[in-house]
Design brief:
alpha+beta, Penicillin amidase (Acylase) alpha subunit, N-terminal domain, 31 strands, about 30% helix, single chain
Length: about 900
């Protein structure tokens, strides 16, 4: 959970301790907001009756004659189940959080930054850009939301309004607007952006380490881990201009598609290397061209104290944005699809589990959207997972096709260092006017805050947001090579951010295109509109095809000789137009494949293409330990001859095997410890199966060793903001160091006149872990278990943080529980090794498995439940099953839905 939620909301409710102190009173208030899910209700604007059928988990399956009626009903249902969540998020995305929670510094800071980004303004422009049909669906959805709001007081919409009302003025919510839905897409894109942190961290690491080779060790190339990309060499490189693949890949009806324009062997319009290892883009941007030269020229510049403060201040300012979907270690997903030749049903099976923030209520809302008669006018017959506040299904299946999404991690953001003088900034040899606009932040119970937003051609000046203006005062003359201008005032330095999501796009169109897709061509069409966030798409069709498609608006960067790398890995000089983006990758150039001869596709945030995918997609990826484990499990079962079922796919989703343990346990057992207290934990590792099971004592001890190993190895050399979280990149870093017993990072710089080696640090980690387990759990290793340390503590998105009075938190938050899994494990219940806690920070926000032979045999589960009301039976009624790795039946056909009905609500005109 973000720091903002804990502070802004927590302090707002201190005065309401008595409100929830009496449990029965709290329940009475909570139940007042529960909706009626049976009987009848009238909605203005409907053309005919709409049936809302809810199953045993309260999941709504909506049946209508017209598409607009379908989405009008979905808006009504979303407002029933989760209006406060919707309202909270629209305040965040509009930069109006202080209007809701009051005079809180963190809320005002968030509003300043989001107003600077202008998410709402971009969404307003998108409403005019999307198709007329999408506009119609968005307006119908808004009408449905507003129909539920009509004649209901805030306390009837959510218990949260009652709690907030004790300290701030709570007005009737504003009517829902289609732009509210589109603005949510900006929050989704922000949390799923690309190498944003790595770009800043490289510069910060250099300013501390003063050695480019050491920086390179902390950001290994993807291939160093030895894990496979999504597409193989033959899938990535077409044999000729026909787009057909070489080496036997792509043997299905579509063939494996090439990644170069017009079937060339390149990723760029000039026709470059298909794997992206040489160049990409309109001007042939080199992936690492000039890196060594750049590093040498940066000596001294990146050591400048003002620059270091600017970089740190920029990170601090950007951290003010509340986390909506996920952020940091653990953000990712698993997806894979297996051809029918290897399944028991004879048709493809697809699995997906997005790894996002785990909160209450969970991020996803399950729904079925069914036209009574599927036609051109009413083309929807789909079910899956969506976001409350936005119509349609984002991930799921229809009668003909299933699709899953994972974060692709394409590099879609760049920091630019700007020279600013007054209200002008430098472009080439000229000073041109900054674009400015005025914003006023209304503060509930406080005085308005005026904000002046200034922007360059690249984007808004992020440094303007900081009150101390540290980022705007950086002296960075040595950062780039530029001509001397004697007698000319060069101005101060400011930092701007260019990001693809700050241009209006058609992602909303893509959502409805996914919902009605039937084949690979439909997926391509949808992907071409899915501008942000860039996601891997895997799909399976009813007629037996499987495939992969990369979407997204990906910027092209020209190759510029000089001291600053031009591939997007480092901040760029804004005054030199040569560093500007030169355009975007064409949709037809994006990697894709169908029916690979291997018989399956795994997309789990690893590199898309061989060679690391080249700079036209990204330079920083997940290092592929999860994807490689999935590949191993799939290959082993295929080799055994046993056909896959949906149960097999669920078992893979819950696999707890640790690549960390596979790499380290053998080395740890070679360390000689006295046969006493210190070696008690080490002995547990001897017969351990390397799985992070919640009941495992060895797993608990190993996690503590890993935490202490990272602490002893890196915290003495890196700024606190870069202390290892312990995920896949740090596994790749340590993997590269293990055979170098005297690597500089093994040395503890805090010990004067002593140079530690690898084995000394490993010994220290083993002993420290033993002591940690004694303090946190028990002196007796027989009492240890991973689940005792690795707790899932779901917090309400607004009223669940530590600053909230205990009775309120207890009411709003589901009970904590120990879980299996861990960072960079297929069952990716991540934790932050730098935090001192083993608690879950992110994980599978849902799990789904779809069998194209029998859609009613598919399964699904979310981390909490459908409802956002704590008093509802469906607030967390899926949590226990989720934690145990179990799933629920997913009815789809009308017969299956009717058989599962427990509540029916008829909406009438």
């Amino acid at each position: 959970m973000s720091r903002l939620r804990k502070l802004a909301i927590g302090t707002a409710v201190v005065v309401v301790l008595a409100l929830a102190a009496v449990t029965t009173f709290g329940w009475a208030i909570g139940r007042r907001a529960l909706p009626s899910t049976s009987g009848e209700a009238q909605i203005e604007g409907l053309t005919a009756d709409v049936r809302v059928l809810r199953d045993g988990q309260g999941v709504p399956h909506i049946y209508a004659d017209q598409a607009t009626d379908l989405f009008r009903a979905q808006g009504y249902v979303h407002a029933q189940d989760r209006f406060f969540e919707m309202d909270f998020r629209r305040h965040v995305t509009a930069g109006r959080l202080a209007e809701l929670v009051g005079e809180q510094d963190s809320a005002i800071a968030a509003d300043k930054l989001i107003r600077t980004f202008g998410w709402r303004q971009v969404a307003e422009r998108e409403l005019d850009l999307v198709s007329p049909a999408t506009q119609e669906y968005l307006r119908a959805y808004a009408d449905g939301v507003n129909a539920y709001l009509a004649d209901r007081s805030p306390s009837e919409l959510g218990v949260e309004y009652t709690v907030l009302g004790a300290s701030v003025n709570v007005e009737d919510p504003e009517p829902w607007d289609p732009v509210d839905s589109l603005a949510w897409l900006k929050a989704m894109a922000w949390d799923l952006r690309s190498n944003y942190n790595e770009e800043l961290d490289r510069a910060l690491a250099y300013s501390t380490l003063e050695d480019p080779s050491q920086v390179a060790q902390l950001f290994p190339d993807y291939g160093t881990a030895g894990n496979r990309p999504i597409l193989t060499e033959s899938a990535a490189q077409p044999a000729n201009g026909s787009g057909e693949s070489a080496g036997g890949e792509g043997t299905g009806s579509e063939g494996t598609e090439g990644t170069g324009s017009e079937g060339t062997e390149g990723t760029g319009s000039e026709g470059t290397d298909g794997a992206g290892t040489e160049s990409a883009g309109a001007e042939g941007t080199a992936g690492d061209a000039g890196t060594e030269e750049t590093s040498n020229d940066l000596d001294g510049a990146l050591l400048d104290k003002d620059l270091r403060e600017a970089l740190s201040a920029t990170q601090e300012a950007l951290a003010a944005v509340p986390e909506q979907i996920a952020r940091g270690e653990g953000t990712g997903s698993n997806s894979w699809v297996v051809s029918g030749q290897y399944t028991e049903s004879g048709q493809p099976i697809l699995a997906n589990d997005p790894h996002l923030s785990l909160q209450a209520p969970g991020i996803w809302h399950q729904v079925g959207l069914h036209c009574n008669t599927v036609s051109t006018d009413c083309p929807f017959d789909t079910a899956g997972f969506g976001f409350s506040g936005f119509p349609g299904v984002v991930i799921g299946h229809n009668a003909d096709l299933a699709w899953g999404l994972t974060n692709m991690g394409a590099d879609v953001t760049d920091f630019f260092i700007e020279r600013v003088r007054g209200d002008t900034y430098k472009r080439g040899d000229q000073w041109i006017d900054l674009e400015t606009r005025e914003e006023t932040i209304r503060v509930n119970g406080g005085s308005p805050v005026d904000v002046t937003v200034r922007s360059t051609v690249h984007g808004p000046l992020i440094s303007d947001v900081l009150d101390d203006e540290k980022a705007g005062a950086a002296t960075m003359d040595a950062l780039v090579q530029s001509p001397t201008e004697e007698g000319t005032e060069l101005g101060d330095y400011a930092i701007s951010l260019q990001w693809t999501a700050l241009e209006p796009g058609r992602t909303a169109d893509a959502v409805f295109a996914f919902d009605t897709a039937r084949n690979a061509e439909d997926i391509r069409r949808a992907a071409a509109m899915f501008d942000v966030p860039a996601q891997n798409i895997v799909y399976a069709t009813k007629d037996g095809h499987i495939g992969y498609q990369a979407p997204g608006r990906i910027p092209l960067r020209a190759q510029v000789p000089g001291p600053v790398s031009s591939d997007g890995a480092w901040p760029r000089p804004g005054w030199d137009p040569r560093y500007d983006w030169t355009g975007y990758v064409k949709p037809e150039q994006m990697p894709r494949a169908q029916d690979p001869s291997e018989g399956f596709i795994v997309a789990s945030n690893q590199a898309v293409l061989p060679g690391g995918s080249g700079p036209y997609l990204a330079r920083d990826w997940d290092y592929g330990f999860r994807s490689q484990r999935i590949r191993t499990l799939l290959t082993e079962q295929i080799d055994s001859g046993r056909l896959f079922t949906t149960d097999d796919m669920s078992a893979i989703q819950n696999d707890d095997w640790s690549a960390f343990a596979d790499l380290l346990v053998g080395v740890l057992l070679e360390i000689e410890l006295p046969d006493d207290y210190d070696s008690d934990g080490q002995r547990l590792l001897r017969d351990w199966d390397h799985t992070m099971d919640e009941d495992s004592a060895a797993a608990a001890y190993f996690a503590a060793v890993w935490q202490n190993l990272l602490r002893a190895t890196f915290q003495d050399e890196l700024p606190e903001s870069m202390w290892p979280e312990g995920g896949d990149r740090w596994l790749a870093v340590v993997q590269g160091m293990l055979n170098d017993e005297n690597n500089v990072f093994w040395d503890d710089k805090t010990t004067v006149s002593v140079r530690e080696s690898r084995d000394e640090i490993l010994t220290q980690a083993l002993k420290s872990a033993r002591q940690d387990m004694t303090v946190q759990l028990s002196k007796d290793p027989g009492d240890w278990s991973w689940g005792m340390l690795h707790q899932l503590e779901l917090e309400h998105l607004a009223l669940g943080g530590k600053g909230v009075p205990t009775p309120v938190r207890t009411y709003m938050n589901p009970a904590s529980q120990g879980v299996s899994g861990g960072a960079s494990i297929v069952n990716a219940t991540s934790w932050d090794a730098a935090s001192g806690s083993f608690n879950v920070t992110a994980g599978p926000s849902m799990r789904m498995v779809v069998d194209m032979a029998d859609l009613d045999a598919s399964t699904w589960v979310t981390v909490t439940g459908v409802s956002g009301h704590p008093a509802s039976n469906h607030y967390d009624d899926q949590l226990d099953e989720w934690a145990d790795g179990e799933t629920f039946a997913w009815p789809f056909t009308r017969e299956a839905v009717e058989a599962a009905v427990e509540d029916e609500l008829t909406l009438r005109p």
